[in-house]
Write a structure and sequence with these properties.
alpha/beta; six-stranded mixed β-sheet; four-stranded parallel β-sheet; 13 strands
């Protein structure tokens, strides 16, 4: 297999190099407060059949990956939900079971290997919480030094996780967008590989592995995939995986992908309908998808449009309700951004044929943000001093 970069905007082709992050030509057109211009995609050329090994479809050789069991996450068959909804081919991809408990490990894993291959041992990034704790954990396995910029409001568990893994953590006096700006400036001045989502092409490429796995687990592509969206990097990655399989002749059609956003942070949704991205302050209980300017917005929007994808939004109440619904019906406890996809499915189910193969992406573990999860349950108020109190 041969790999190079192709610009998602101008189609110019480049050799893969560690210091090339976005297309230098399109980057000249970058406007402040707009999604990244000139996002580079990895292009693969070669042949493979349906018995492919995921590593053979990645642009870094297996020997450079850290010893961390990323991916190969379980595909649940939620019997109760199948019965209740009538969707007999409903699946949930449990990416909260990755080593640091979120989907982000797929990107961190490939970035870590890419840095290792190029002799780079420090990695810098901005994060709402999960990308940071992920890179910290995967970096710990690889022996790399990780520097993270996070919003001060990031859920404590995600910050604690990153610190446990030994990362250098800076809380910024502002939101994720400010953290992003600081991390860019820091890596320009202090060096190291930047792992910012979408900016480092290996983030999208790493995230494609979920589609390859889903194909392997089902022995075919699903009909529909539901995924929550903030920066749009997971969305771009899911498309990239299925597109690679199509290019290789392994599947014949790309699934219909539903991108699900929070009503309070819906930049991609707005751009899908208006054609342009506007930077307005956003807020949602689902911190992992709380993004004012989606960094991979332009790339993700193009993929949605080109492939007939759909985009919907759900309220915070629906997200919290979906979280406890998923927990109590399946035993899978996801963080709010993880249950957002389930909330989206509940909203859109009427549009879908009952026998369709549907995959819900559960992107992160519920224990990462217990404060939000508390909103969907009732904590017992009083302690009991005897069983007599309750019988
Ligand atoms: C990052 C993240 C998302 C959204 O991914 P984007 O690439 O930002 O769209 C969804 N769920 C969880 C748990 C995440 O950590």
């Amino acid at each position: 297999m041969k790999f190079d970069y192709i610009c998602s905007e101008c189609s110019k082709v480049y050799d893969i190099q560690p210091d090339l992050m976005v297309c230098p030509v399109c980057a000249e057109t970058q406007i402040e407060d707009q999604p990244l211009a000139g996002v580079l995609e990895v292009r693969l050329t070669g042949e493979a059949d349906s018995s492919f090994d995921v590593f053979d479809l990645l642009p870094v050789e297996k020997e450079f990956f850290p010893p961390s069991p990323v991916g190969n996450t379980p595909l649940w068959e939620p019997e109760n939900l199948r019965k209740r909804t009538g969707f007999s081919n409903l699946y949930i991809k449990d990416d909260g079971s990755n080593p640091t408990n979120s989907f982000k490990d797929r990107a961190s894993y490939l970035v870590s290997a890419f840095a290792k291959k190029n002799g780079i041992d420090n990695i810098v990034l901005a994060s709402t919480g999960n990308a940071g704790s992920s890179m910290a954990g995967i970096g710990a396995a690889a022996g790399q030094e990780i520097t993270i910029f996070l919003p001060e409001t990031a859920p404590p568990a995600k910050i604690i996780q990153a610190l446990q893994y030994g990362a250098k953590v800076y809380k910024v006096a502002g939101n994720y967008d400010l953290a992003y700006d600081f991390s860019m400036e820091y890596s320009k001045r202090a060096g190291g590989m930047n792992r910012n989502t979408a900016y480092n092409p290996m983030t999208i490429e790493g995230k494609k592995t979920v589609s390859l796995e889903v194909f392997q687990q089902l022995s075919k592509a699903p009909d529909y995939v539901f995924v929550s969206t903030g920066d749009g990097c997971i969305l771009g990655g899911i498309y990239k995986g299925f597109e690679d399989l199509k290019r290789l002749g392994i599947i014949s059609k790309i699934p219909v992908i539903y991108s699900v956003q929070a009503e309070g942070s819906d930049a991609l949704y707005r751009a899908f309908h208006s054609g342009k991205f506007t930077n307005i302050p956003t807020a949602t209980v689902a911190d992992s998808i709380c993004v004012d300017v989606p960094r991979n917005g332009a790339h993700a929007l193009k993929k949605l449009k080109d492939n007939g994808g759909r985009i919907i939004k759900v309220s915070d109440e629906q997200i919290i309700e979906a979280q406890s619904d998923l927990s109590s019906s399946t035993g899978l406890f996801t963080e709010p951004a993880g249950s957002t996809a389930w909330a989206g499915f509940k909203k859109a189910a009427d549009e879908i044929e009952k026998d369709a193969v549907v995959v819900i992406m559960a992107t992160g573990n519920g224990l990462k943000d217990t404060a939000s999860a508390l909103k969907g349950i009732h904590m017992p108020e009083k302690s009991i001093s005897s069983v007599d109190n309750i019988l």
